[in-house]
Amino acid sequence: MNYILCDPINIEKYYPFTFTRPLGEMRIFGGTIKERWEKLLGCKVSYLTRSYLSKLYPTTFKVGKNILILSDSNIDLDTAQTFEFEVKQEDIDSKKKLKEEVENIINKFSVKSESGKIKTSLSYFFSISNFFYDLKSNIDCSSNPFLNDDDGPIIIEEGVDIMEGAMVRGPVHICKGSIIKMGAKIYGPTIIGPYCKIAGEVTNTIFLGYSNKAHDGFLGHSIIGEWCNIGAGTSNSNLKNNYETVKMWDYFDRKFKDSNEQFLGLYMGDHSKCSINTSFNTGTTIGVNCNVFGSGFPRNYIPSFSWGGAAGYRDYDIEKAFKTAKIVMKRRGVEMSSHYEDMLRKVFNMTSLFRT
Is residue 123 one of the residues assigned to a domain? Predict the structure, then answer.
C-alpha cells in the first residue's frame, strides 16, 4: 500500500505558510502532519502538492494500490478524506496520463473548511500528562523545578538546551536542537520546532523551526515560519482592547475577515524578520521574506517580499533577499539548494499582485 498526502484545493487559506511548503509540513503536537501520518500508518508517505513545490517535495507513485489522503483531514483513516486508485507500470511510464487521473481525483475531494484558519489550539499527542525528554538534551539542574506538566505533557527532544531559570508549563513540545534561554516563560499549548532560540514570554504559539525569538518580549496565539528573526523587545497583541473577535487577512477571499476568535496574534511567513521593539497589532499577517522595521504599528497585513514599516513599504529586492537568506541558512549549516531558490522566486512572482 502506498500513501500520498494531498494538499487541499483551498490551499490559499493556509497562506503564508503553505506558500513555501505542503500543508503536511505544518507542525502539530507530536510532529508534523506528515510525521503523525507516518507514525499511524507505519510507513513513509510522500506529497502531492503544487508543481513549483514538487522538486522539493516529490510524489512517489507505486505499482498497485495507492491511497490519496487529504492533508487537512483528521489523522485517522476511518474519518480522513481518502481516495484509492490502482497504478500500473505503464501509468508510471506515461506520467501525463497519471497526472490527468490524479487531477480528476483531486477535483472529487469536497471542500470542508469553515474558516480555513490554522488553529493554534492544539490536540494532545499523549492521553496523559507526562514529562518526556531525551538523555542527550541539556537541562540545567536548577531549571527542573520550573517544568510543570500538570496541564499537559512536556516533550523535549534530542539536543535541546534549557538554560537556568527557564519556566515551561505544558503542553509544550520542544524539538531537537532548540535553545530555551535564561528566564524564558513558556505556556502551553506551544510547539517549538527544531533549531530555534527562544526567550521572553511565549504562549499558545507554533514555531515551525530554525527561527529566533532570542530576547525579551511577548508572543502569543501566533505562528512563526522557518528562518524568521524577531528583534529584541518585540511584542504582539493577541487580544483587542474591546474584547471583540479578531479580523485577519484572508488570502483566499483577498480581504480581512472575522476569524470568530477572540485571541489571535501574529502570523509570520518564512524568512521574515522584524527590528527591535516592533509592536504588532492583534491579528497581523506577514508574508514570506519581509523586512519590517521603524516606529509605530506596522499594517495588519504585509505582503510577501515587502521592505518597510508603518511609514510605508516597497518591494524587497529579490537578490538582496536571497543573499540574506543564504547567510541565515548557512549559520544553521544549511545550504540553499537551486530548487529552493526556484521555489522562492516563484513565490515572489505569485505575490507581486498583493504588493501593488
Answer: no
